[in-house]
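hiii so um. not sure if this is the right channel but i have a protein structure encoded as tokens and i wanna go backwards to a sequence. like what aa goes where. can anyone help
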């Protein structure tokens, strides 16, 4: 790292943003081939396997239910053999894509160890949203089809099966794998159920964090990373930079949780909004107002589509009838809407 070479006694900062796992899913074929056959069980069974694994590891609280199968994509056992073959390969490519990225992130860690700074480096690893749905219900060999409402043809996509992951295609997996990637939550990116806004988050700083391999359950948001780093380093954000007044830093530090697993969360309330889909978190509760509906199948029954305008009349209707409420202390995966029981709250 040039910063270390040029000033070995000066702290360094690296914001390492990879293309993975964003579309297109491009990776050398040998990395995708490592997963050949690993997803032949399909997305429904894969969700069940991952859910149980999460429970066994304690990644999700004991008793967390698995959200119901989403009605917007088909069950795996209803697909044709050609569809299964194509969709399984799309997931193999994605898995290789992520593993390839993980390998090269490992090279960064190896270098930190080589220069003797691994233990003294605060490392934070996080994604920016839940798994992506831009592949559509049947996956895609060109994600631009999805954005331009161009229908995918199974035969044409199968003809490009061996090209998946390479420069000839702009491939993305189908919604079934999107949903599976967000296990145990429902839905996906661009929506504000937990499947759209929740991500794994890893923090490492061996020199200052005595805990090893522990899980923290306090609420945190992406905007909390900067305040946390500033507190960990004992730095106050500058009021001005080169004479220019700075806006206050948003977010709340969670540095107090590094060595205190039971420390209370200091981030109590957070609002989310994406393309009309809204939610509000407050001290273990989440209120969600889905747009155009809890899924596209249910939305269609009301004549609503993803691209439908939110007119004053529609807004009045959804404000009155569509807000959902979840108690995350009992229902982390948002499987039981209890809004009807708390209308006066």
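sure thing!! here u go:
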């Amino acid at each position: 790292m040039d910063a270390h070479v040029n000033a070995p006694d000066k702290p360094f900062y690296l914001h390492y943003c990879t293309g993975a796992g964003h579309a297109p899913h491009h990776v050398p074929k040998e990395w995708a081939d490592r997963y050949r056959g690993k997803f032949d069980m399909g997305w429904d069974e894969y969700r069940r396997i991952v859910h149980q694994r999460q429970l066994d590891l304690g990644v999700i609280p004991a008793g967390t239910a698995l959200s119901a199968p989403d009605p917007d994509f088909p069950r795996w056992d209803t697909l044709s053999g050609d569809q299964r073959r194509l969709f399984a390969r799309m997931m193999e490519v994605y898995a290789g894509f992520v593993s390839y990225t993980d390998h090269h992130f490992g090279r960064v860690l190896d270098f930190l160890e080589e220069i003797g700074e691994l233990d003294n480096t605060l490392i934070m690893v996080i994604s920016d949203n839940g798994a992506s749905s831009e592949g559509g219900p049947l996956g895609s060999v060109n994600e631009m089809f999805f954005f331009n409402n161009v229908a995918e043809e199974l035969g044409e996509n199968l003809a490009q099966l061996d090209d998946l992951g390479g420069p000839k295609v702009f491939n993305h997996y189908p919604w079934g794998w999107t949903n599976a990637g967000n296990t145990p939550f429902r839905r996906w990116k661009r929506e504000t159920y937990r499947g759209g806004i929740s991500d794994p988050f890893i923090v490492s700083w061996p020199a200052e964090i005595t805990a090893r391999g522990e899980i923290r359950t306090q609420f945190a948001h992406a905007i909390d990373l900067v305040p946390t780093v500033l507190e960990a380093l004992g730095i106050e954000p500058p009021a001005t930079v080169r004479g220019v007044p700075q806006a206050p830093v948003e977010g709340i530090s969670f540095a107090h949780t590094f060595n205190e697993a039971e420390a209370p969360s200091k981030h109590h309330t957070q609002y989310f909004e994406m393309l009309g889909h809204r939610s509000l978190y407050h001290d273990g509760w989440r209120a969600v107002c889905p747009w155009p509906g809890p899924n596209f199948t249910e939305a269609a029954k009301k004549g609503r589509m993803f691209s439908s305008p939110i007119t004053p009349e529609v807004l009045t209707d959804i404000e009155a009838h569509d807000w959902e409420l979840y108690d995350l202390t009992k229902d982390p995966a948002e499987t039981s809407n209890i809004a009807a029981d708390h209308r006066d709250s």
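oh and The first strand starts at residue 123 and ends at 126.
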